[in-house]
Specification:
With 155 residues, the protein is of the alpha+beta class. It has five helices and six strands; from the N terminus they run H-H-E-H-E-E-H-E-H-E-E. The N and C termini lie far apart (42 Å).
Length: 155
């Protein structure tokens, strides 16, 4: 059983045109099973076989908000955590899709991971496996339920 979410930002829930062909329905079932067990999903396949469409369909069915990042050969570990934005003619640094996904409990879709430098892939792999990532500004991402998230009541 996998609960359907109540999105805070419905515009971030994918809504794609999808044709339920038997092969894709089988893949969706497998994806849903892994998702319901709390596993991270990795879809590997040739270009154009429908990996993004399958992902968006699953997230749409679950009403799950999505953050998206497309990696490339120039992606850096820093660009995984901070993203430049132009506001009133000034460049400001804001949280990246990865950090927004963590903070808001959204799904992060990482596209083209095979194009990224090895150190970027290693950081993402460590985050998935360990549930922890130290950020350049001193903050640390830790998985929900980590005892370090408890308030220090001695102060």
């Amino acid at each position: 059983h996998c609960p359907v979410r109540q999105p805070q930002r419905p515009e971030l829930v994918p809504d794609v045109a999808f044709v339920d062909i038997p092969q894709h329905v089988e893949v969706l079932k497998d994806m849903l099973l892994d998702w319901s067990l709390g596993h991270h999903l990795l879809l590997v396949g040739n270009q154009g076989v429908g990996k993004n469409k399958l992902t968006d369909r699953l997230l749409g069915l679950l009403c799950c908000e999505r953050e998206y990042v497309q990696l490339h050969r120039d992606t850096t570990v820093q660009s995984l955590t901070l993203a430049p934005s132009l506001k009133a003619g000034v460049v400001v640094w804001e949280d990246s899709p990865l950090l927004r996904a963590v903070k808001e409990g959204r799904c992060l879709v990482v596209d083209e991971a095979d194009k990224a430098p090895l150190e970027v892939v290693c950081v993402l792999k460590a985050l998935c496996e360990d549930g922890e990532l130290g950020l350049p500004d001193g903050r640390t991402i830790v998985k929900r339920g980590d005892s370090r998230l408890a308030e220090d009541r001695s102060e």
